């Protein structure tokens, strides 16, 4: 079977759906991080979502971020340490919006493509959502280790597209 010149530039499915997730993320008005998520069953796109304030409420670009500081006890080199984390509580995460605006029946056995590795809360929600696979691009080191452990325990395929390049004009610099 011959390949046409057009096939050599055709994107694979992971790239195609991650490109869509990045384009969805451009709808976010969050000044700290634009995140997009898409729900896919086979090769069928079932839903999209991005991070932002609840509908009808001023978002962070209008009212400022609502940053809270949390402290977490973690093990670092076999030693317990207190680690400070900051997060915005005004924003609903892309994964949370995706779960709110899609049906459970559509999520059963599906794949979520998300621009960023899910935080702990989103990972917990995704673990209970019926999805079988989560594919992400950018790492989120604050929760990475425990999220990977959770996905392993749940038997959810958890893949990082480290070599992926987002489409031009779809990304933003990320504030940790």
TrEMBL record:
CMP/dCMP-type deaminase domain residues: 12-158
InterPro entries given in the database record: APOBEC/CMP_deaminase_Zn-bd (IPR016192), CMP_dCMP_dom (IPR002125), Cytidine_deaminase-like (IPR016193), dCMP_deaminase (IPR016473), dCMP_deaminase-rel (IPR015517), Deoxycytidylate_deaminase_dom (IPR035105)
Coiled coil: none
One Pfam family this sequence matches: dCMP_cyt_deam_1
Keyword annotations of the record: Hydrolase, Metal-binding, Zinc
SUPFAM superfamilies: Cytidine deaminase-like
Cofactors that this protein relies on: Zn(2+)
Family, similarity comment: Belongs to the cytidine and deoxycytidylate deaminase family.
Official protein name in the record: Cytidine/deoxycytidylate deaminase family protein
Naturally occurring in which organism (per UniProt): Paenibacillus spongiae
Source species taxonomy: Bacteria, Bacillati, Bacillota, Bacilli, Bacillales
